[in-house]
Amino acid sequence: MFEKFKQDLGALDSFDFMIPQLVSSKLIIETLQASESRYRNLFEHIDQGVIYLDEAGVVMAVNQAAENIFGRSRNIIIGRKFLDNCFKAIQEDGSAFQEQQQPSVLALRTGNPVEGVVMGLFNVELQSYSWVVINAVPEFRVGEAKPFQILMTLTDITQQKLSEGKLSMASVIFNNIGESIFVTDKDKKIISVNEAFTLMTGFTQREVHGKNTHFLQAKKKDLKVDEALTEYGMGMNGWQGEVWRRHKNNKDFPSWTSVSEVKDSDGAVTHYVHVFMDITHFKKAQDHLGFLAYHDPLTKLPNRLLLKDRIDHSLQNAQREGSQAAVLFLDLDRFKGINDTYGHDIGDGLLMEVSKRIKNLVRKEDTFSRYAGDEFVVFMENIPDAKNPAKLAKKLIDTFDAPVYIKGHRLKISTSVGISLFPQDGRDTETLITNADAAMYRAKKKGRNNFQYYSPAMTHEAFQKMSMESALRQSIDQHELVLHYQPQVCLKTGKLVGVESLVRWMHPTRGLMSPQQFIPIAEEIGFIVALGEWVLQNACMQMRRWLDQGFLINKMVVNVSAVQFLRSDFVATVERILALSGLEPCYLELELAGGNFMDNSEQTIQALNQLVAAGIDLTIDDFGVGCFSFNNLKRIPVKKLKINSSFVVDVVNNAEDEDIARAVIALGHGLHLQVIAMGIESKDQQNRLSNLGCDEGQGYLYGYPVLPWSEVFQKMMKD
Ligand code: C2E
Ligand code: MG
Fold first, then answer.
1. Model confidence over 160-196: pLDDT tens digits?
2. Which tens digit of pLDDT belongs to each residue from 334-389?
3. Domain 178-283 in CATH 1.10.10.60
């Protein structure tokens, strides 16, 4: 710095105004005046502060730049010691400058120049420090060893200091801030990351350096920042948004990200700065708040708001698809009494237990909500039958048969349920809930602990169905099931080839019921498995008896429903029953019901093959009705097709029915299968089917389904 000052002075022809060598006084005076003026000019206008101190360290001369640095005029500065001119002088580390460390003092004491001392001088005018680099050069008179004055230059480095300060502050912030920061070049390649970034993502600077910003985003979770920037633009304050980040350990996390551009003086982007924070906790809290808005805090069940939302939404679908739905309104009977007697704590405990029990009973697709106080609502969508909700209502009521224990108290509670149906009882949420509520009041009036449909006729039907179901479940134990047998004959010879077992139910009050009235219910409630086993066992035992009695009969034909057949233990059950009844498998023929018994799985095909391998014949019942795939005919080892009676009824008078019968017969024979026609009532039908090549027949013409000891039947078996 001092060198520069000397160079500046060197611009003068000579720096000789203090050396009186010239002899011509006029010339001397002129020269001195010119030199003095040049010096003054330079002294005043040079941008470095210049100060002359005498041998006692007292300021003798000060230039303008020095005045600026102190923030004081030279009148005040001159005549005082250097450091007396400022309120405070500090070193770079902020500590005060001691008198003896001062460059001019050192230079005076040692006689050596002191250079490059950085000092902060308090500027009175600016009320802040001016930072300077000071050089102090001692000057000597000829022949003297002690300096007679000190030339001090002060170079103002305040601006430089400030930017250094800012930089170091930025660096401190960059590495200590809690947010992750990474900087990319203009091509979005990462060039720098901070410590928080490594903590948050697990990636070090080295692992991400040169990688594209995409590298830090979780796959397929959301919009890429780049795409967002293209789509929405950077905006005045950069871009902000939620971005899913990837962690080195593969656990993605949501972040709130801000992206800013850094531009050069021409306005071209040189860098992008990405700042982000992990918002996992924030999102969790947000989710929790969202949950609280739509759920009951005690039971955690959907509240009234969410319930209505779900019903609204579901009704739109139901409307479009033409499906049915139901609202079940539950009110706990005499809950208020429990609350009053035992206190709210026990009441709350009871409500929680109640909701737990109910939750176990409703389907996943149903919405179960706490509607208010002791009122609960179950919304069932897509119900196949209007009587289905009654079943659930019954289960809900029954679940309170068992007492509830809360904090050692044994509480007995019951519930009343009201049911409204979409669309018949209301087409919108409000109406459905209001009507279910009204039905619930009716249930209360009827003595509580029961359910009512909004429409009384529906209640009646539902009760009937339910009582039928419970009676059916007891039919085996009550010995109410009966098997009738119907002959099957060879159409060519008229000889008996087999008998089909057909089940009936002797209902305690309704009398003999046909299988069409109860088999679908048995299938629905799963009772068909027990019923089917009962039929199979009784039919096999009957066959054994007939064979033992010497009757001429080839096959016992037993109907099997799809529900039974698709059970994995079906083959084992058949084998067990055959063994139990002592009947050889070759006497058994299974009629697989209609078109829907196949699920096409390998397991099903394998089971069918196992049965055939055991010597059991298989027939497809009601062929031509339902949706049996022809492809299955190739894959499963059936022996016979049974033409449905609906094609037989008009086989004589209706050409189309005749064509269908002909086609089925041709198809069967083409596949080397036998064909039997069901429902032959007249000779004409018999003859027509026989002419079409049908092998066997069954129908009232040969005999009604009758009890095994029927004489007509027994006679046929002897011939
Ligand atoms: P299916 O297997 O097609 O049985 C033939 C039905 O036609 C029987 O009705 C029989 O009484 C009736 N039928 C027989 N000959 C004639 C006739 O000449 N004219 C007319 N109009 N009908 C005739 P049923 O006994 O009421 O049985 C109805 C259905 O119930 C059966 O149809 C069968 O699918 C089912 N079923 C009967 N018993 C059982 C059983 O033990 N298990 C299973 N899973 N289903 C059974
Ligand atoms: Mg049948």
1. 888 877 777 788 888 888 899 999 998 989 999 999 9
2. 898 898 889 999 999 999 999 999 999 999 999 999 999 999 999 999 999 999 99
3. no
Please name which of 585, 499, 478 lies closest in space to residue 542, comparing C-alpha atoms. Answer: 499
**Inter-axis angle of helices 570-581 and 602-613, to 10 degrees?**
20
Decide if pLDDT at 656 tops 70. Answer: yes
Atom 21 of ligand 1, nearest CA residue: 679
Ligand 1 pocket test, pick from 484, 501, 502, 700 with the greatest ligand atom count within 8 Å of Cβ, gives: 502
**What is the Cα–Cα distance from 122 to 137, expressed in whole angstroms?**
23
- Amino acid code (one letter) for 325: A
Only one residue has tokens 């002791």, namely: 374
The pLDDT of residue 2 is above 60: no
In CATH terms, are 2-170 and 178-283 the same topology?
A: yes
Give domain limits for the chain: 2-170, 178-283, 297-472, 474-718
* Ligand 1 binding site (Cβ under 6 Å of any ligand atom): 486, 502-503, 514-516, 519, 532, 535, 559-561, 591, 593, 621-622, 645, 678-681, 699-700, 705
- What's the 517 CA to ligand 1 centre distance in angstroms? 11
Residue 341 Cα to ligand 1 middle (Å): 60
Q: What is the pTM of this model?
A: 0.55
User: Helix, strand or coil for residue 180?
Assistant: strand
Provide the CATH topology of domain 297-472: Alpha-Beta Plaits (3.30.70)
User: What is the number of the ligand closest to the CA of 619?
Assistant: 2
**Each residue of 413-460: pLDDT tens digit?**
999 999 999 999 999 999 999 999 999 999 988 888 899 999 988 888
- Indicate the class that CATH gives domain 2-170: alpha beta
Q: Taking all residues of the chain, what is their mean pLDDT, rounded to a whole number? A: 88
Looking from the CA of 240 toward its CB, the CA atoms found within 13 Å total: 4
Q: What does the pLDDT read at residue 13?
A: 46
pLDDT in tens, 127-145: 888 899 999 999 999 888 8
Superfamily in which the 474-718 domain is placed by CATH: EAL domain (3.20.20.450)
Q: Which residues of 434-462 are buried (b: 16+ CB within 10 A; e: fewer)?
A: bbbbebbebbbeeeebbbbbbbeebbeeb
Q: Count how many Cα atoms sit within 13 Å of the Cα of residue 52 in the half-sphere of its side chain.
A: 10
- Residue 207: is its pLDDT beyond 70? yes
Structure tokens at 55: 């041998």
Q: Whose CA is nearest to atom 20 of ligand 1?
A: 679
